[in-house]
Write a structure and sequence with these properties.
The complex is a heterodimer of chains A (about 140) and B (about 375). Helix content of chain A is about 40%, strand content about 15%. Chain A is built from four helices and five strands, in the order βαβαβαββα. Chain B has three domains: about 100 residues, Rossmann fold (3-Layer(aba) Sandwich), CATH 3.40.50.2300; about 60 residues; about 160 residues, Histidine kinase-like ATPase, C-terminal domain (Heat Shock Protein 90), CATH 3.30.565. The longest helix of chain B is centred in the middle third of the chain and has 58 residues. Chain B has about 375 residues and is α/β, with parallel strands linked by helices. The chains are: A alpha/beta (about 140), B alpha/beta (about 375). Chains A and B meet through helix 1 of A and helix 5, helix 6 and helix 9 of B.
Chain lengths: ~140, ~375
């Protein structure tokens, strides 16, 4: 174990099976929630270093609601959030460039399904790393005054 | 839908208001009357009548002005002009301002009933058209999202699991197993691409696209597309040569979809190019227009294929050697996008020698449409209020 904990929120068990496998082979500890509701519960009773969320769940683009909710939460917004989606047209016309938008789609990373193994692991490493540097910066800032 | 229609009668003569109300009293209508244009307009805004009878000659706002404002407020409201000085000119004037019919004074009760019945029919048709259009739109949207989600989800799950297997994360594959898995992965890939292209195509709403128009730097867009394909071209040792006129003014359009068009054309050019050849891309400004042409020295297009290459799902007889079969949608989508820009996309080709695709875009889209502005407004009027 490299000690990093990832929460995966996606309602497709077969898709989750593969992504969980990739992450676990890379020594991450993975917890899966099959709905936004389960995801919120998991965030309440567990500690995580990264959240990966799918866009299309349940009756529509519920993943976007999850992203907005997390980024509004004082504590949870510090968690890096990676969005994975198979639905291009829901997030931006033709999906050219980076669809992130600080209010519409407040996520830290965005990948399109199916995700290449290396691409996924690189993105996860990058987000976990930027989280650490952000923490370091905050600590430093805290020390200065 | 309730079949009780609301009718408003705007006339300064009390006799006319009363007799009209009386004639229709037995019918299943809600009847309101107004003595002048101002109060008539106020009532129109308040309860959106189905039919409005307007007297042409009234003190204050004239009947024609009232007509015009009702039409602007809600073009689906059916208006009928009542007038004492019936001339062809005044009738034509009223029609131009959106009146549906014309009732010369004095009129008989039967005449009035008949014209009311006709107007109610018209109103019903207009409302039905709106409902139908709306339903069609909902079906189209739902269908697209069902296709996206229900068709893609299983394929995405399959593909993600294949990646895990192919990357040897659940044990090494022997060469035969690996080969078979690669084949499976490629087939799933092209199926996913087909679904993506198809949903892209159905999600292009031309009127939505126009709302996003802004000045686009075409040479910059073209070089973006060139950049995307650089690696693919290099793999076949194909050189991409861009030749751009010095000062090219921006074109009014939608950057995202125009990029899609240029990428489509360039992707095709590379796909059908011979190894070690070159593709020339020319950008020229013309008379209020911009031309972008992409010429390859590839296999070319058979003469009998040319009339159909912009049709949905059409694939030419000659396919690129070694390349994957296309979906037959790329050019169809490109044509749709270019049409939305009031431009044109054409091809010239000689089998065995190569093809040239030319996109012509007007500097300012919309100019050509202003001629038929009234006609367009008429067509829009039917569904503008929904």
């Amino acid at each position: 174990m490299n000690g990093k904990r990832i929460l995966l929120i996606d309602d497709d068990p077969d898709y989750v099976y593969a992504v969980k496998m990739i992450l676990e082979k890379a020594n991450y500890s993975v917890r899966v929630s099959y709905s936004p509701k389960e995801g919120y519960a998991a965030l309440q009773d567990g500690e995580f270093d990264l959240v990966i969320v799918d866009v299309m769940m349940g009756r529509g683009a519920e993943g976007i609601i999850v992203a907005r909710k997390l980024k509004k939460d004082r504590e949870l917004k510090k968690l890096p959030l990676l969005m994975i989606t198979g639905i291009r047209e829901q997030t931006g016309f033709f999906f050219i460039g980076d669809p992130r938008h600080e209010t519409f789609l407040p996520v830290d990373g965005f990948l399109e399904k199916p995700v290449n193994t290396e691409v996924l692991l690189n993105k996860v490493r990058e987000l976990l790393h930027s989280d650490q540097t952000a923490e370091l910066k905050q600590e430093k800032q805290g020390e200065e005054p | 839908m309730s079949d009780r229609y609301t009718i408003l009668i705007i006339d300064d003569e009390e006799v006319v208001r009363d007799s009209c109300s009386q004639i229709l009293a037995k019918g299943n209508f809600r009847i309101h009357t107004a003595a002048d244009g101002d109060s008539g307009l106020k009532m129109t805004e308040e309860f959106r009548p189905d039919l409005v009878f307007v007297d042409l000659k009234m003190p204050g706002l004239s009947g024609l002005q009232v007509l015009e404002r009702i039409n602007r407020f809600d073009p689906t409201i059916v208006t009928i002009v009542i007038t004492g000085y019936a001339t062809i000119d005044s009738a034509v004037d009223a029609m131009k301002r959106g009146a549906y019919d014309f009732l010369p004074k004095p009129f008989s009760a039967d005449e009035f009933r008949l014209i009311t019945r006709r107007a109610v029919e018209k109103r019903k048709l207009l409302l039905d058209a709106i409902t139908l259009r709306h339903e069609k739109e909902v079906i189209r949207e739902n269908f697209t999202s069902i296709v996206s989600h229900e068709l893609k989800s299983p394929l995405l799950a399959v593909q993600q699991n294949l990646y895990v297997i192919l990357d040897g994360m659940v044990g090494e594959l022997n060469p035969t197993q690996k080969e078979m898995m690669e084949r499976v992965k490629n087939r799933v890939d092209s199926l996913l691409r087909l679904i993506n292209t198809w949903t892209d195509m159905t999600s292009i709403d031309v009127s939505e696209l126009k709302k996003r128009f802004k000045p686009v730097d075409i040479p910059a867009l073209v070089s973006k597309a060139v950049e995307v394909f650089q690696a693919q071209a290099a793999a076949k040792n194909v050189t991409l040569v861009t030749d751009c006129a010095r000062s090219v003014e921006p074109v009014n359009g939608d950057e995202g979809t125009l990029l899609e068009v240029f990428m489509n054309i360039m992707g095709n050019a590379i796909k059908f190019s011979e190894r070690d050849s070159s593709i020339s891309i020319k950008i020229e400004g013309g008379d209020g227009e911009l031309h972008v042409s992409v010429s390859d020295k590839g296999v070319g297009i058979q003469k009998e294929d040319i009339p159909f290459i912009f049709d949905d799902f059409y694939r030419g007889k000659v396919q690129a050697s070694g390349a994957e079969m296309g979906s037959g949608l790329g050019l169809a989508i490109s044509k749709r996008i270019i049409n939305a820009h009031d431009g044109s996309i054409t091809v010239e080709s000689e089998p065995g020698k190569g093809s040239t695709f030319t996109v012509v875009l007007p500097r300012e889209t919309g100019k050509s449409r202003t001629h038929g502005k009234e006609k367009v407004a008429e067509q829009f009027a039917i569904w503008r209020s929904d």
